[in-house]
Amino acid sequence: MLEGALRVFRDNPELAKSLCSRIRSLASQVGHVKFMNFCGTHEWTTVHFGIRSLLPPNVELVAGPGCPVCVTPSYFVEQAIRLALEGVTVYTYGDSYRLPALRAIDGCRSLEEARAAGGRVKLVYSFLESTEEAREESLFFGIGFETLAPIYSSLLLAGKVPRNLKLLSLVKLTPPAARFAIGYHMHRGLLPLSGVIAPGHVSTVIGAGSWEFLPKEFGLPTVVTGFEPIDLLVAVLLLLKMCVENRPRVVTEYRRVVSWEGNLPAKESMGKVFETFESSWRGIGVVPDSGLFLKEEFSDFDAYRHFNLERVPHSERDLESGCRCGEIIVGAARPTDCPLFGKKCTPGSPVGPCMVSVEGPCNIWARFGGGDVPGNSG
Amino acid sequence: MCLGTVGRVQKVEGRELLVDFGGIQRRVVCLEKVEEGELVVVHAGLVIGKMSEEDYRRNIEEIQLLLEETEGSG
């Protein structure tokens, strides 16, 4: 089935041609439409496989907030650097290792630089590794969306987290971010969104039903889709069909993995361990009900409490001068609109947070030539 | 960040699994009930979902249906 799936959903030019032909037909029946994705992997697929180049000029795909590394405030990077230099072992995913802080701490602007300066920074693939390894006072730099929260909650509930390991929960929720991005486009004179490509793997956890507010409250057609090029083309076709028929609803294209209810044991586990609170998004500001923080019962493992850190830092300036990551992350600007893109800011030497992670929009556009297609004006 | 990798379950030990990703094996955490031989989607050490043969077939059938519904839509 796995090999078959790749033949059907990736190496399938005939199906791609059929889908594109129908996309062109339906696109001729609508005006300019703007569909937003909320997952860095969707943006990667879109750019890597040149999906934008296959679409008619009136069908615009924009990247929304889909990269948790991109939106983690500088304050937390700075605090993690400080703690690593003071002797606390900081565990981090590879994605956040090079995330630049706005202000240098003892000359270090990232966890990578802190490690080079002798700080205690360790890269791990999963939270599980850190729970097995942590011996001294440690902090886990817990970036993520809903896909990562269950591993934190399940290991805490199973009693597998040692007392010396403190979780800095930087988990952010995608539906509130979608709500924020939709409002941003509606209220700032931008062309409003016409549809949403909902994140496939986040939806695997939270369920496709979590997006029902999009058609109900905003009249937005929504497709939960997978990560192969055929998945993306099917999503565009489904969105156009709903636009033409004026029947907005949530459709699950990624049927092979996503259910309407989601991963119930994972959701139950998250509900027992985390509470929802407002959260700071780098370059965007504070988004209501968009962060997951440990409940009081798990305060012994809470890095905010143990290291006396602010939960919701309010920083008016969280980006380098000239950096447009704040607009790029909500789809109000394209990476190529930023004066630093490809000049001062590159994947080898990132200035803005969207250039760091392999799923940040600037990093993707820089590596694969971008989706800078005439007619798609951002 | 939310990249999911599909692998096949090799061994089930309570809530931990040994999963094979095309020759590379990893220990991962799983909250759902799974059996050896099943395909799972793994993200950063956690099984976030399963991929069933039936849903995979339905996925393809629905695309076929969409193509039929939109044929000659111009």
Biggest sheet architecture of chain B: 5 strands, antiparallel
* Architecture (CATH level 2) name of chain B: Roll
Greatest chain-chain interface?
A-B, 63 and 40 residues
Number of domains of chain B: 1
Write the layout of secondary structure elements.
The complex is a heterodimer of chains A (378) and B (74).
Chain A: H1 2-9, H2 13-27, E1 33-37, H3 40-48, H4 51-54, E2 59-63, H5 74-85, E3 89-92, H6 94-97, H7 111-116, E4 121-123, H8 127-133, E5 138-144, H9 149-157, E6 165-171, H10 174-187, E7 195-198, H11 200-206, H12 213-218, E8 222-224, H13 229-245, E9 250-252, H14 264-273, E10 274-281, E11 285-294, H15 303-306, H16 325-328, H17 361-368
Parallel strand pairs in A: 1-2, 1-7, 3-4, 3-5, 5-6, 7-8, 8-9
Antiparallel strand pairs in A: 10-11
Helix pairs in contact in A: 2-13, 3-17, 9-14
Chain B: E1 5-13, E2 16-21, E3 24-29, E4 39-43, E5 46-51, H1 53-69
Antiparallel strand pairs in B: 1-2, 1-4, 2-3, 4-5
Mind explaining what this structure looks like?
The complex is a heterodimer of chains A (378) and B (74). By secondary structure, chain A is of the alpha/beta class. Chain A has a domain at 74-174 and 262-306: 3-Layer(aba) Sandwich (Rossmann fold), CATH 3.40.50.11740. Chain A contains 17 helices and eleven strands. In chain A, helix 2 (13-27) runs parallel beside helix 13 (229-245) and helix 9 crosses helix 14 (264-273). The model of chain A is unreliable at 373-378 (pLDDT under 50). Chain B is an alpha+beta fold and 74 residues long. Chain B has a single domain (5-69), classed as Roll (SH3 type barrels), CATH 2.30.30. Chain B is built from one helix and five strands, in the order βββββα. A five-stranded antiparallel beta sheet of chain B has the order 3-2-1-4-5. The chains are: A alpha/beta (378), B alpha+beta (74). At the A-B interface, helix 1, helix 2, helix 8, helix 9 and helix 11 of A face strand 3, strand 4, strand 5 and helix 1 of B.
